[in-house]
Give the backbone structure.
Amino acid sequence: MSPHATQIFKERGVDVDVKLGMGPDELIECIYQYDGLAVRSSTKVTREVLSAAKELKVIGRAGIGVDNLDIEAATAAGICVMNTPLGNSITTAEHAISLIMSLSRHIPLANASTQAGKWEKSKFMGVEIMGKTLGIIGCGNVGAVVADRAQGLKMRVISYDPYLSHERATELGIEKVELDELFSRSDFISLHTPLTDATRNIINFEAITKMKKGVRIVNCARGDLIVEKDLKKGLETGHIAAAGLDVFVKEPAKTNILFGMENVVATPHLGASTTEAQEKVATQVAEQMADFLISGAVTNALNMPSVTAEEAPRLKPYLLLAKQLGSFAGQVTESALKGLVIEYEGHAAELNIRPLTAIIIEGLLSPLMVSVNMVNAPVIAKERNIHVSEVKHERASAYQTLIRLTVETENQTRSIAGTLFAGSRPRIVEIKDIPIDAELGPNMLFITNKDKPGLIGSLGMALGEANINIATFHLGRATPGGDAIALIEIDGAPGKLVMDEICKLEHVVQVKALTF
């Protein structure tokens, strides 16, 4: 990685160690002491590594491919995973175009022959690429650049990508097709799709039989996209004219069944190997990780909502409010969770609500289980069949901004709402449809009771006898003499004996000690 990354970390106030060439055991042995881990493609961040990473908060992949990272295990551990999808897009795309040109004109073989003094001009008859059809499998960041460069060379471009919209295809000036049609029409095929269960071995014997005879295949993405023995057979029969490969199933590829074939051009995973790309990905990953660790900004995350550096300061008070609301709901919940509806009104509805929702779920689940944060909380909720809904309201509200949670359990449905006072101070304004106005302190008592005379006095006496001071006292009621609530900030946590005494007080229905 470029030394510039180290410089950026230090300038942002992050201590950094550079450790190169570490084996898996060495990484496992030392990872426990780090908050962040920046890697390239050769470092395997496995479940075993993550189990040892007790303090790890973020992993930054300097580059686009993340199949060397166990994202599922990282998410379960609450670790944010980032990459730099744009840093080497141009470099990788240019390498793909270089391989297309090399295959069409036999450049590597012709170079070796000429330098050997053979001058075999007639042996290296090539083909023009102008007017040929290029089929791109995966038209994301890199594929789109390849399409643009190929069009500059007057090639016709078609693409298979399930996530490519027709509008985006039109914008790129390419034709979106199904995979079989791409196989049958393409003179050249270039792979630019991530490695997933759906794309693994996408080029196999069956796929090759559907291709136009004389097709040329380029792979600058991942080696496992191609079944190498099937590609070799296609090359030997002449059904595939040539292949340009920058990636292989097993790397480093010191030996391979495709090596030594005259119609194969092989390079050692050079797609991102330019000075400019190395500088870009190093700079980007350092900036992204430093922003996350210092300010909470989230950029190019693969397992949590993104929060830009500009959004982070504006979101900060809302994140605090969201966490308090979720934590309150979680601490008063006594039966299994079934669903959660989160409503955003006023200014809150205009925000990037995905991180707010994530931190609400974190707050809701944290009192019920350990090791929950905003990275893994949505996944945990889904695994436990807790249905989460988000609603944005454009309607007028009594508050400039409002967030309301409605929690459904096996036994009841309970709601809580909050706002920001003076734009930055969270306040609870409604519990179980009962209006209240309270700020939350570190230690709170939440009491549901009947609205009857004498409760406040007897409650004050019970706390006084236990030598517990009352900091603030907030009341709300549905109707005179009906259901009522109290939120009381106290100096210190009450013990079990105190809680038992409060529960015995006349008109008290329920009491909960809450911490924030």
Remarks:
- Residues 121 and 179 are 37 Å apart (CA to CA).
- The first helix runs from residue 4 to 11.
